[in-house]
């Protein structure tokens, strides 16, 4: 069996292999393969009811750094007196120092407040109890912070794992005065637009050698409006010739005064 980077990849491979074997293996009791019998049986099956929303709910208070902690101790056990490390998960900055509800699922953590879902994180479970604490950031949660303090963008831990296109643009932007503020403004576009559209505009700006806020905004608006980007250049003449060339004739002003205001300036 090949190696896999994670359980999700292993499960996907196992599912595919099972489907392949079903198509190859005879059923034994009924005519045809297992896949053939399964296809006939599916027609008679009833639909599944909605999945039970099973979770454990805890009350948490968001820290001033927009984090909540979650101790994934198994049955409150400790090994050699060492408690399982506490995982920190980010929450939108607008809920700093406020109470929230943490819903614990087997594979994810959901943060809610006032009946609304604030955010969701994949649940990180460390098998070793001696590993250092990990903090799981979502950089979008800290946009309100860097909008007030753009300088935090340079060394802020939540922004160390930005998407590749944003990181490339950041390298260009931070070289010039005011680049922090412009980079924050570009990142904040994901609050009003689809993130993939913003990334596409950033990638186009980088490819065209114009990594500026103005150009990114222009490209984004054109993408959102469905306009063609990077089309063939227009074939225009080198010089446009007017049919009636303008003449510098100040006496025309005096003629107009005489006709409209009886020769006097309008007051």
Automatic annotation (TrEMBL):
Superkingdom, natural source: Bacteria
Domain Transposase for insertion sequence element IS21-like C-terminal: 87-129
InterPro entries (alphabetical): IstA-like_C
Pfam family, one: Mu-transpos_C_2
PANTHER family, A to Z: INTEGRASE PROTEIN (PTHR35004:SF7), TRANSPOSASE RV3428C-RELATED (PTHR35004)
UniProt protein name: Transposase for insertion sequence element IS21-like C-terminal domain-containing protein
Gene source species: Salipiger marinus
């Amino acid at each position: 069996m090949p190696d896999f980077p994670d359980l999700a990849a292993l499960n996907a491979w196992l599912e595919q292999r099972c489907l392949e074997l079903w198509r190859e293996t005879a059923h034994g009791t009924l005519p045809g393969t297992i896949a053939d019998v399964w296809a006939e049986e599916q027609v008679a099956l009833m639909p599944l009811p909605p999945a039970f929303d099973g979770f454990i709910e805890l009350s948490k208070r968001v820290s001033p750094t927009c984090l909540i902690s979650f101790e994934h101790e198994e049955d409150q056990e400790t090994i050699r007196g060492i408690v399982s490390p506490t995982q920190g998960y980010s929450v939108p900055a607008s809920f700093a120092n406020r109470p929230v509800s943490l819903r614990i699922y087997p594979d994810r953590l959901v943060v809610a407040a006032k009946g609304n879902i604030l955010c969701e994180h994949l649940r990180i479970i460390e098998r070793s109890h001696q590993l250092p604490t990990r903090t799981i950031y979502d950089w979008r949660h800290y946009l309100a912070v860097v909008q007030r303090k753009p300088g935090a963008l340079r060394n802020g831990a939540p922004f160390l794992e930005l998407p590749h296109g944003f990181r490339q643009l950041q390298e260009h932007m931070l070289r010039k005065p005011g680049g922090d503020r412009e980079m924050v403004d570009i990142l904040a576009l994901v609050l009003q637009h689809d993130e993939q559209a913003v990334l596409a505009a950033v990638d186009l700006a980088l490819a065209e050698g114009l990594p500026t806020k103005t150009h990114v905004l222009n490209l984004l608006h054109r993408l959102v409006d469905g306009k063609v980007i990077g089309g063939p250049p227009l074939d225009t003449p080198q010089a446009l010739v007017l049919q009636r060339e303008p003449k510098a004739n100040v006496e025309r002003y005096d003629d107009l005064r005489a006709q409209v205001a009886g020769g006097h300036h309008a007051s």
